[in-house]
Amino acid sequence: MLEGFLDLQRATIVWKARGLSDADAAKRLLPSLTTVSGMLRHLADVERSWFREDMDGQEQVPVHYTDDDPDGDFRVSGQDSLEEIIVEYELACAESREVASRYALDDLSAAGEGRFSLRWIILHLIEETARHLGHVDILREQLDGVTGE
Questions:
Q1: Rounded to two decimals, what is the model's pTM?
Q2: Cα separations (Å) of 35 from 6, 40, 42, 55, 61?
């Protein structure tokens, strides 16, 4: 059930993003770096960070943010392909599913001194993905008027 709710949020954010031009997906409508493309790239990094780094203890997992640029995952331009960003996000989700398949819900993370269980990580990802889905929903309506689930 938890994985199903997370997958619903993952699929819905992709559905909400599809159909935008690369330029519109990268368009900043707020003073922050918040864009549709940036949200998807951020969520790809979030997936990899929580599942591959924290849960599985993998090192040197590719992400777009750095210590020098903590907002690197949000930095996109109209030249960034929305479709490529969606493909990267879907790949990160598939990687997360593969990691999760090797653990029980109450297993503790390899990183962070076992501070998080897989159950906690999945619940956190449901919350974070749903929150950012709300952002994308509003941005999409502002960009071209498209609404709905």
A1: 0.95
A2: 21, 9, 10, 28, 24
